[in-house]
Amino acid sequence: MHIVVNGPIACEGLSALTSHFGDRATITPFATKDAAALDPAAFAAAEVLISIAYDSSMPPTPRLRLLQLPVSGLDSVDFAVVTAGCAVCNVFEHDIGISEYVLAAMLHDTVGLAGRNARFKAGSWVENPVRGGAFRRELAGQTLGAIGYGSIGRAVATRARAFGMRVMAVTRTPRALEPAPDWLGGFDQLDHLLAHADYVLIACPLNDETRGLIGRAQLARMKRGAVLINVARGPIVDQDVLYEALRDGVVGGAILDTWYRYPSAAEPEVMPADHPFHELANVVMTPHLSGWTEGLMPRRFAVIIDNLERLAAGRPLRHQVHLPV
Question: Cys-Cys with 97: which of 109, 145, 162, 293 at CB 3.0–4.6 Å?
Fold first, then answer.
C-alpha cells in the first residue's frame, strides 16, 4: 500500500503508521504546507492520502482509493476535484478536549478565578465576604444551549449535566440521542434556544446551511448577559454583527476559539478577524486549540489505522463522507 502523509498535522501520526504497518506499506511524508514542495511522483503512486486539504493545487492522484482526513472538518476539501472513485473519510475523537475547554470557558466566566487571583495577589481583600464582597454566580442551574448536537455537543452536555446545568439543543435531524437534552429542537426552533440559554455553544459543522447562521437577528434574541462560545467555525457567526453586539453590550460576552482568517506562508502573523476583538474586555480568545490535547492524535490515528486495514481487506470504512456509504 502506498500512503502519502501530507502536512504537519497529518505527520503527527507518522510514528504510529510506520510502527503499525512496517514493510507492509510505503509511507511518504510531507511535513510542509507548501503545495509547490510536494513530489508529483509520490502523489501519482499514492493509494491513500492522509491530508487535511485536497484541491487542484496538489499533484494529481490517479491511483487514489482513500482520502483520509486527520480532522473532522470538510471545508478544506474540494470534492469536485477528488479522484474519481476515491472514498473520503474524516475522523473525530476531539470531543474530550473540546468539551473540557467549553466547561473551562463557562467556569472562567462564572467563577472568574484568574481575575480574583490577580486582584488578591495585588493586595485587595475587597471580594472577601467579611468585607462585603459580592456573591458570584454558580454554573449550577444555568442553561447551556448547543447549536449542533453531534459528538461535541453531547460530550459537553454530559459534563454540563455533572455541574447541574440544564441542556437545550438544536440539531438538523432531531432524534433520540444520548444524553437526552432537557429540550431538543430542529434548526427552525433556534430562536427558542437563543432566548433561553445562558451559554450558547456553536458546535455544528460549517456548510451552506450554517454559514452566517448567527446574524444580527439571532444575537438580538439572546439573553442580554448570555455568553457565546464558538468552537466550530468562525463564519457560522457574522463577524461584523458579532463585534458590534459585543462592543455595544447586546450580548454579555464571547469565548472564541475559531476565526475568520488564519496564518499562511504570506501572512504568518495575520490578525484573526477584521475587527479588534482583542480590545474588548468581554471577549476571551484562543487560536483554534480547544481540541488539541495529548490524547487527540493517538485516538485519531487508531481510527485511521483501522480504516486503512479496512480498505486493504475490502471492508466498510468508518466515517465515510464521500461516495455512497
Answer: 293
CA 306 to chain centre: 23
Q: What distance in Å separates the CA atoms of residue 115 and residue 138, rounded to the nearest whole number?
A: 16
- Provide the total of helices (H) and of strands (E) in the chain, helices listed first: 9, 13
100: containing domain: 95-285
Average pLDDT over residues 293-302: 97
70 and 34 in one domain?
yes
129 occurs within a structural domain? yes
- Residues 6 or more apart from 209 whose CB is under 8 A from it? 172, 187
Q: Is residue 219 part of a domain?
A: yes
* Amino acid found at 206: L
Q: Which pLDDT does position 286 carry in this prediction?
A: 98
Task: Measure Cα distances from 118 to 12, 74, 188, 282 in Å.
Answer: 37, 41, 44, 17
The span from the CA of 6 to the CA of 54, in Å, is 10
Catalogue the active-site residues. Answer: 233, 269, 288
Mapped onto helix, strand or coil, the DSSP state of residue 247 is: helix
Do residue 304 and residue 238 come from a single domain?
no
Phi, psi of 171 (to 5 degrees): -145, 160
pLDDT tens-digit map of 34-58: 788 899 999 999 999 999 999 999 9
Domain membership of residue 266 (yes or no) is: yes
In a domain, 290, yes or no: no
- Read off the pTM: 0.91
166: helix, strand or coil: strand
